[in-house]
Amino acid sequence: MKISAFNEVVSLIANIGVIGSIVFLGLEMQQNTSMMQSQTRNSIVENQLSFYERAIDNIEFSRIAMEFRADSTAYPIGTAEAFQYRLFVIPQLRIWENEFYQYQAGLFEASVFQSRVNTWREQIVNDSLFETWELRRDQFAPDFVEYLDNIIAEELAV
User: Fold this and answer.
1) What are the extents of the domains in the chain?
2) pTM for the model
């Protein structure tokens, strides 16, 4: 009987150890998820700042961008200015696509993602940005295209 009681105590201790390990693993995973969310938000902000610095650091390009936002025909297709502006807009769309997938992966909270979507709604209806999207939308993932097209349809219906 003493051996049986000893085996039960050892088994109980082992089970407690397993449960403790599972709890510890859960806490580690929660911390890891929080860290990944934080790193994702930081990376997105860095990408946005880098993107905006291109216009901030180049006053001539800032003028071109302002002219395009005011009039999407400010420079004809085929001009250096139109090419430069499209090369400016495409990374912005890529940032949006990345944010969409980061949210899908659970690395953005819904409220954070919604604030980004509000920005997309405001900007995508600008003719010059919308025209670039229409020209290049086939270069983006189909589910992101569908998502952004739904936003565009909602904004144009308003």
Assistant:
1) 38-157
2) 0.71
